[in-house]
Design goal:
This protein is of the alpha+beta class. The chain folds into 2 domains: 56 residues; 257 residues, no CATH class. Helix content is 20%, strand content 36%. Strands 1, 3, 5, 6, 7, 8, 9, 10, 11, 12, 15, 16 and 17 form a 13-stranded antiparallel beta sheet that branches. Strand 7 and strand 8 form a beta hairpin.
Length: 321
């Protein structure tokens, strides 16, 4: 009798599991990586099961420009360095929040596998994938003539997806400049709508060794010259989003500390063809990796199969009893 009760309890529990996760399809938009036209014939229309990815995008950026003579400013410790740089004469990042020195927006043009084959595009998937980055604070500055080299911390990046068919769909518009940022630091009109599929945060220990510029604490390194443009780079870790599990790979290892990261972003910025009050623009890719993880509906099918098996075993046990 005790064994029969155990089987009954197991069947009831699993049935509840199926009811809660198996047959409750989400209405939220998600990214679906399927090979598109232009890929090798045998791949077109098939699912990308995982591996390296490259995200190609177009972005606009606000940043702080310091009006100081050549020299080194700030410290290698973010807390004291941020305070020191905040006290320097500068043209702050327009529309910034709380001492923030860099922020911006982007729209994704395509996502490719490790061989350069397209697995996601707006036209191919009927979606728009937009990016909001914010929160970076400068703590170390090396000024050389007009050129400035900066170490920063606290760079946040959020990715949002919308289906074109969504009645509430809003088209990306980068011409708004700082006027589009509202109502808070992580919000921007026509960028932060839809489903947040991924959140990333800059990670220390990758860009510089101890004693070099901002040292191991540097999470975002950039070089800029007014009227010319510059470079930037950051290593990033997944912190959230509806598809966080798909991208949390820890596939990149720091040569300095052994720390892990999920993505590497590198920027080549230009000051030409920049609308509104943006400081620079760039078009460089972000590299990372993707892991295929079953959707909740898949888990539901698996649970349903297990439930059928349990019911069959229970009936067999009852007959023997």
């Amino acid at each position: 009798m005790k064994n029969m009760i155990k089987w009954q309890h197991a069947g009831v529990a699993l049935a509840a599991l199926v009811a809660s996760i198996g047959f409750s399809p989400s209405a939220k938009a998600q990214l679906n990586f399927v090979y598109e036209a232009g890929s090798p014939a045998g791949l077109v229309g098939t699912q990308y099961t995982g591996g390296a990815i490259t995200i190609k995008y177009s972005n606009f950026d606000m940043g702080s420009v310091y009006g100081v003579s050549s020299g080194t400013y700030g410290t290698s410790t973010p807390a004291t360095g941020i305070t020191a740089l905040n006290g320097l004469p500068q043209a702050g990042a327009t529309g910034s929040f709380g001492g923030e020195d860099s922020w911006g927006i982007a729209v994704v043009a395509s996502i490719e596998d490790g061989s350069g084959n397209t697995i996601w595009s707006p036209a191919g998937k009927g979606q728009q994938l937009t990016v909001m980055f914010y929160g970076a604070q400068d703590f170390n500055l090396v000024q050389n003539g007009l050129s400035q080299e900066i170490s920063s911390v606290g760079l946040h990046i959020d990715l949002y997806v919308q289906n074109f068919s969504d009645p509430a769909f809003t088209a990306y518009d980068g011409t708004l400049g700082s006027a589009g940022r509202q109502p808070g630091p992580s919000s921007y009109t026509n960028v932060t709508d839809g489903t947040k599929v991924l959140s990333l945060l800059s990670t220390a220990g990758f860009l510089y060794g101890a004693g070099d510029h901002g040292g191991l604490a540097t999470e975002f390194a950039s070089r800029f010259q007014p009227g010319v443009g510059g470079l930037g780079s950051s290593y990033l870790n997944v912190t959230g989003g509806s598809m966080a599990t798909n991208f949390d790979t820890n596939g990149i290892t720091s040569l300095f500390t052994g720390a892990k990261a999920d993505f590497y972003a590198e920027f080549t910025t230009a000051t030409s063809n920049v609308p509104s009050d943006w400081l620079v623009r760039s078009h460089d890719p972000v590299s990372g990796a993707f892991i295929a993880v079953p959707e909740p509906s898949t888990y539901g099918v698996m649970a349903a199969g297990a439930l059928v098996g349990i019911v069959a075993l229970r009936r067999r046990f009852q007959k023997k009893a």
